[in-house]
């Protein structure tokens, strides 16, 4: 079994890397904040989860000697790839015994090794699950719905991570699909470019994973949905056939084949390479913050800015509850107001002028410039990537901590927000007795926005998945019923599959099934995600 070159240790029972686990300072802040609400105490706290304490389903695959160098059935590898990193996944590590795990894990470093693994798996009719960074929060990489197959093989793509070419003239990078976000940015930095694409999973997700899930980056306007950035894709089907789309800025010939792969979630085959539009490294940056008496007034400002054609790189809104929660974690006195965060960057000295324009629009909608928000902004940016680690710690107190995101048009946004927040609050109260619900705007468009809700509350020992499921079902049904999408950028996965079909006409679902059967006639690729 080949060892990875990563200097950090991937956490088999939690988010991210072992070396970046929650710090003592963060523990103190989290326990002080949440403890006052839920009476957290050392008596309630469970022991940290140990990988050795988790029992896995027996491995069923026999690994050929020719593949033993990059295919493993070790407890560590199977556990590491058994689930994604959603709340449900981490609760499942605690409650499921034995835990369903892939029967073997392949970590190919080359095209030839990938082809060898696929030939072996296909010959035995094994289910095959592509795996990027493993940060899925929708059940996208879990070996669930695979009972009919003699075994399940997960293929981890992180060792196929080369950068093939960088074009400064075209602002395009050509790289392997298994490259992680930070490594891609590090390669681009030498060419004075960057991806300007940083989802919360940035450090733990791959280029191929971004495409397969139709993800969206942290910067919230213009081309932050990954499908708008993909120039070309290349890959391998389960039968070993290879494909590559032509790298073109645009075309009108038939249906764009790139659209097959953006959102494919491993159901059609493997994305092995991609070309992505990138950006020059900025020389100028700026941030501003505005407080609003209500979230609705902040929405008015966001719409005005999104329709102004100025397009600041960053536009986010924290509603009153989300802003107060962020302030408490940052050690700042909370206020009962919504907060609009604006940020911009450029290679040209135009950032201040652009921010002046959008600031005037914010002021016209009732916003008040917050000159003292710099500490909160710095803490918010830092906490953005640290929040999953804090969630993991709260699991030791049997806390249900989760998020969901959706998108809706401006005309319906205010009523939609009120309805979904009320339903979420009621569901949390019914299941947990008490809790918190907040919302933030993460992405804005000329015709609508992405609303990202967070909730938490105390769960029952040994019944976290059941309690979470009751809340998740209530809010998911409400989102679809009220006209939103079940996911703006987290993908469908197994968690959203029961609700996603309501978004599409039957003819579209039938076309997806036909495409799946054409490219994967034996149905081996990631069974259980799409409508097979």
Question: Could you describe the 3D structure shown?
Answer:
- This protein starts with 23 loop residues before the first helix and ends in a 13-residue tail after the last helix.
- The longest helix has 23 residues.
- About 1% of the residues have low confidence.
- With 532 residues, it is an alpha+beta fold.
- The strands form 4 sheets. A 7-stranded antiparallel β-sheet has the order 15-12-14-13-17-18-16, sandwiched between helices. Strands 5-6-10-8-9 form a 5-stranded antiparallel β-sheet. Strands 1-2-4-3 form a 4-stranded mixed β-sheet, covered by helices on one side.
- It has 15 helices and 18 strands.
- Helix 3 packs antiparallel against helix 13.
Strand-helix topology:
Elements: H1 24-38, E1 71-72, H2 75-80, H3 87-95, E2 104-106, H4 111-123, E3 127-131, E4 152-156, E5 163-167, E6 172-176, H5 181-189, E7 193-194, H6 207-212, E8 230-236, E9 242-244, H7 258-261, E10 270-277, E11 279-280, E12 284-292, H8 295-306, E13 314-318, H9 320-330, E14 338-346, H10 351-364, E15 368-369, H11 374-395, E16 399-409, H12 410-432, E17 436-444, E18 448-458, H13 464-481, H14 493-500, H15 506-519
Parallel strand pairs: 2-4, 3-4
Antiparallel strand pairs: 1-2, 5-6, 6-10, 7-11, 8-9, 8-10, 12-14, 12-15, 13-14, 13-17, 16-18, 17-18
Helix pairs in contact: 3-13, 8-10, 12-13
């Amino acid at each position: 079994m080949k060892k990875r070159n990563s200097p950090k240790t991937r956490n088999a029972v939690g988010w991210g890397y072992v070396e970046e686990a929650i710090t003592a300072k963060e523990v103190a802040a989290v326990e002080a904040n949440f403890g006052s609400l839920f009476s957290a105490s050392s008596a309630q706290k469970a022991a940290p989860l140990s990988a050795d304490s988790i029992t896995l389903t027996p491995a069923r695959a026999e690994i050929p000697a020719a593949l033993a160098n990059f295919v493993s059935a070790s407890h560590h590898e199977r556990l590491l790839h058994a689930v994604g990193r959603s709340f449900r996944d981490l609760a499942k590590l605690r409650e499921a015994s034995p835990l369903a795990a892939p029967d073997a894990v392949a970590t190919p470093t080359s095209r030839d090794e990938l082809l060898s693994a696929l030939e072996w798996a296909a010959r035995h009719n094994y289910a095959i699950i592509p795996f990027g960074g493993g940060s899925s929060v929708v059940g996208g990489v879990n070996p669930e719905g695979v009972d009919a197959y003699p075994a399940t093989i997960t293929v981890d793509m992180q060792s196929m991570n080369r950068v093939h070419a960088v074009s400064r003239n075209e602002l395009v990078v050509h790289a392997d699909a298994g490259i992680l976000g930070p490594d891609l940015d590090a390669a681009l930095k030498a060419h004075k470019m960057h991806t300007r694409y940083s989802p919360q999973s940035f450090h733990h997700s791959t280029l191929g994973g971004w495409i397969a899930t139709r993800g969206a980056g942290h910067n919230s306007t213009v081309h932050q949905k990954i499908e708008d950035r993909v120039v070309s894709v290349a890959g391998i089907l389960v039968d070993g056939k290879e494909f590559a789309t032509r790298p073109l800025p645009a075309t009108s010939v038939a249906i764009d084949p790139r659209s097959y792969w953006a959102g494919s979630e491993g159901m059609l085959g493997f994305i092995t390479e991609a070309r992505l539009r990138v950006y020059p490294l900025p020389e100028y940056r700026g941030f501003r913050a505005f407080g609003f008496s209500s979230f609705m007034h902040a929405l008015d400002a966001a719409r005005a800015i999104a329709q102004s054609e100025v397009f600041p790189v960053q536009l986010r809104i924290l509603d009153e509850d989300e802003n107060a929660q962020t302030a408490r974690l940052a050690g700042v006195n909370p206020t009962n107001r919504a907060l609009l965060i604006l940020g911009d960057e450029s290679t040209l000295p135009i950032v201040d002028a652009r921010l002046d324009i959008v600031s005037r629009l914010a002021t016209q909608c009732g916003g008040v410039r917050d000159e003292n928000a710099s500490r909160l902004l710095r803490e918010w940016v830092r906490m953005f990537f640290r929040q999953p680690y804090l969630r993991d710690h709260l699991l030791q107190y049997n806390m249900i901590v989760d998020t969901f995101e959706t998108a809706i048009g401006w005309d319906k946004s205010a009523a939609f927000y009120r309805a979904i927040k009320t339903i979420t609050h009621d569901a949390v109260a019914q299941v947990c007795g008490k809790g918190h619900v907040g919302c933030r705007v993460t992405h804005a468009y000329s015709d609508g926005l992405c609303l990202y809700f967070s909730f938490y509350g105390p769960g029952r020992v040994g019944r976290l998945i059941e309690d979470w499921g009751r809340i998740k079902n209530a809010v998911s049904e409400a989102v679809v019923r009220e006209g939103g999408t079940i996911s703006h950028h987290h993908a469908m996965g197994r968690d959203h599959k029961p609700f996603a079909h309501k978004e599409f006409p039957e003819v579209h679902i039938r076309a997806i099934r036909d495409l799946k059967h054409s490219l994967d006639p034996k149905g081996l690729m990631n069974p259980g995600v799409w409508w097979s």
